[in-house]
Amino acid sequence: MNVLHVIANPRPAETSSSKKLAFEFFAALTEKNPDVVVNNVDLYQNKPPYVSAEALNYFWGPVANPAYIPSKAEETAANFSNNNAQALIDADVLVLTLPVWLNSMPAILKAWLDQVIVPGKMFEFGAEGLVPTHHLRTVVLLVSSDQVYKENDVRDGLTPAIRAIFAYIGVEDIQIAWADGQ
Q1: How do residues 2-59 score in pLDDT, each as one tens digit?
Q2: Which structural domain, as residue segments, surrounds residue 170?
């Protein structure tokens, strides 16, 4: 099993509830599955840029026009995606470790998602519509929050956003572990 672990929390492990939760999660996972391969990506060490107009043209231009040829500026704007999307394409499981900020995900995680879940990487458009081009089957959220959330809580903007993003590319299995009230 190939697991991509994306960390979107700037705090050190000793003061981060989500990172402590991740430590326990991966200890249990590797004990039960000694052959698991984990690729750790700390977004605060490998910061994704926000998507620019040039990157949008690079990703979506070929969708509108298959003969589209990107400019040098567009190619440069897509460097982060081109260098980082393959880890997600190859993953069977994606584990996201993050705090809830303002009832949603940290902006750095949204920037990463915008860079890697793009046409030509995670999906293509075929005659029947969107066609996934990845191995991803499950997304696991390891989430910390200072508030206590109940299922379908109106303050929880994170869970619906993650479900919608991954449903778009055909991933319906979303598992969530909360370290809430921290």
Answers
A1: 999 999 999 999 999 999 999 999 999 999 999 999 999 999 999 999 999 999 999 9
A2: 2-179
Cα dihedral 34, 144, 87, 81 in deg (nearest 10): -170
Q: What is the CATH number of the domain that holds 28?
A: 3.40.50.360
Give pairs for 37-41: CB < 8 Å, separation 24+. Answer: 37/1, 37/2, 37/3, 38/3, 38/5, 39/2, 39/3, 39/4, 39/5, 39/87, 39/91, 40/5, 40/7, 41/4, 41/5, 41/6, 41/7, 41/84, 41/87
Q: Which two tokens stand for residue 173?
A: 């299995």
* Closest residue by Cα to residue 114 from 60, 170, 36: 60
- Say how many domains are in the chain: 1
Q: pLDDT tens digits, residue range 82-133?
A: 999 999 999 999 999 999 999 999 999 999 999 999 999 999 998 889 999 9
Whole-prediction pTM value?
0.94
